[in-house]
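USER: My hope is that you can spare some time for a protein that puzzles me. I am handing you a single protein, as its sequence and its fold in token form. Walk me, if you will, through where the backbone shape changes along the chain. The protein I mean follows directly.
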Amino acid sequence: MNTMKNEKTKIGISSFAYCFATGRNPYQKPEHIMTPFELIDKAACLGAGAVQFGDNLPLEIYSDEELGKIRLYAEERGIELEAGMRKSTQERLAEYISITQKIGARILRLITDGVGFEPDFEECCRIFSSVIPQLEETGVVLGIENHDRFHAREYAQMIRTVDHPQVGLTVDTVNSLSLEEPLDEVLSHMAPYCVCLHMKDYTIKRNNGGCGLKITGACPGTGRLDIRRCYEACRKLSPRSFNIILESWMEPCETLEESLRTEDDWAEAGVEFLNNMLEHI
């Protein structure tokens, strides 16, 4: 396992760039749900070099034979794979480390919480420490993602407590707004441990006749996020290689068909924007 800066950053797309195509939105669900093979095809067509499967496109439902086919399909198209999961009990984490290895991936992005499961700081550290032998055996690297409950400084402290090179952070550039944490604070604490960088743009608008604010997604490069600064901070502070993975907080359009077309447009624009950014850094 090699996590040092000797690999080129790749632009990747997450299954969370396609929340409508994967059936994530409960009000606009397509009859056909996107498959892992179709997400890989999307990446190849867009000129992305990586795919990250989030928990809206769970890999646990596939057999070992099917996981092997997913791995081969990606390899044939030159797409690097990353896995993702939610609800990081010790048992599920062990299962997903194995799944990550079976699809030939190096990064396992994880969210600690799930329905009925909200471990405290000490329990999180215990769970992550318990799988270190399996990480060493498989070469998988954990990327713990900032979400809604812990602050950025607490995620950084988890990494220092576990203290192993195969346990790092997935730095999400927008999630910590739920805790009212400014971007500079998130980056200062989390960027030194970055093994994966989630990028999604956003906007803040007046709502309810001006009596309130609404945070929602924006087409990459058109919102409030300083995307280049996020990448440069992580590149400067993290000693590890990492990919930039595109996600989306797109709101539904009037019809499902329009939502599906628009998220395709956002993904295309996002990959183009990020590839152009890397070319000029």
The chain has one domain: 11-279.
